[in-house]
Design a protein that fits this description.
Blueprint: H1 2-34, E1 47-54, E2 59-63, H2 66-77, E3 81-84, E4 95-101, E5 106-112, E6 115-118, E7 121-125, H3 127-140
Antiparallel strand pairs: 1-2, 1-4, 3-7, 4-5, 5-6, 6-7
């Protein structure tokens, strides 16, 4: 009787350990896959303000509000894409997001179609990221 209880306890401990191991493995693989093709990581504590600029509609909006900035930074941090070589001369529909840090250094996000330029490096965005970038302008370009 006593040995049966011990064997049940050891089987339960083994099952629990195996389940914990697989959950940990799943969590770590998710973290690694979610960071794949990630373009940039910006922190709210490092950002002073942001500007949204659309040339074809002659719109420029400066955003200082921390809740709006947080939302914009979350969207920018979630952008994913691959590095590409791209010539921007053939496109005329550009939009910009300028992000300024606390010492007022500018980080410029320059987008056309599904291509994004950050610090002289072009990235081809996936469809979800391109839609997310456009959503920033839809949401905040009419607000002050």
């Amino acid at each position: 009787m006593l040995e049966i209880k011990r064997s049940r306890k050891s089987k339960n401990k083994t099952k629990l350990f195996v389940m914990f191991f697989f959950v940990l493995l799943l969590f770590l693989s998710y973290k690694m896959l979610s960071n794949r093709n990630k373009i940039i990581q910006l922190e709210l504590k490092d950002v002073s303000y942001s500007e949204l600029i659309t040339f074809n509609k002659n719109i420029m909006v400066t955003i200082n509000d921390s809740s709006k900035l947080r939302d914009i930074l979350l969207m920018l941090n979630s952008l994913k894409g691959e590095k590409v070589d791209f010539d921007s001369d053939e496109y005329s529909d550009f939009v910009f997001i300028n992000v300024y840090d606390k010492s007022f250094n500018k980080l410029e996000f320059f987008k056309t179609d599904r291509f994004l330029k950050i610090n002289n490096q072009w990235y081809k965005l996936d469809r979800t990221s391109a839609a997310r970038f456009n959503k920033i302008f839809e949401k905040y370009s009419s607000q002050n």
